Amino acid sequence: MISVSVALANARMEAVVTFLALGADAARAEIYGTARPANGADPGGAPLVSIPLLEPVGTVASGILTIDPPESAMISVTGVAVWARFVNGSGAPAWDCDVSEEGGPGEVWLDSVQLFAGGRATITAGMLG
Predict the structure, then answer these.
(1) pLDDT of 88-110, one tens digit each?
(2) What does the alpha-carbon distance between residue 114 and residue 111 come to, in Å, rounded to a whole number?
């Protein structure tokens, strides 16, 4: 088993922050209600909501990137949020993760996983480690 130093773990997460900042647009979390595909594979449809992230996206400490909660975003499609794909400002995939309501098992928490078109969705917390 490999064990990395906190300094290396922090550097790896800082590289994620740098990757997300690439491109002309804001990085974003695309939230889907479909079965999660293989990492980076075509999600098979439009996201329920696409939430622009702050710049920088969060803070790094102890090898963990904590996403700063961004502003809410307009929901495009009604459905139940299941997973999220984080993409950089060029649209290149960074990582996929599970979504849940606050206190749930997802790596990203939303104010509600039941999304209604025309409403707003908010990321309340998120971590990558």
Answers:
(1) 999 999 999 999 999 999 999 99
(2) 9
pLDDT digits (tens, 9 = 90+) for 21-69: 999 999 999 999 999 999 889 998 999 999 999 999 999 999 999 999 9
Beta strands in 1-107 (DSSP E): 28-32, 49-52, 58-61, 64-67, 73-74, 79-80, 83-87, 93-101
Encoded tokens for 82: 């299941």
Which residue, among 18, 19, 45, 27, has the nearest Cα to 91 in the 3D structure? Answer: 27
| Residue 90 in tokens | 């060029």
Whether the model pTM is above 0.90: yes
HEC assignment per residue over 36-52: CCCCCCCCCCCCCEEEE
Q: In degrees, to the nearest 5, what angle opens at C-alpha 15 toward C-alphas 95 and 102?
A: 45
Q: If you compute the radius of gyration of the chain from its CA atoms, what whole number of angstroms results?
A: 14
Burial tier of 83 (Cβ tally within 10 Å: 0-12, 13-18, 19+) = buried
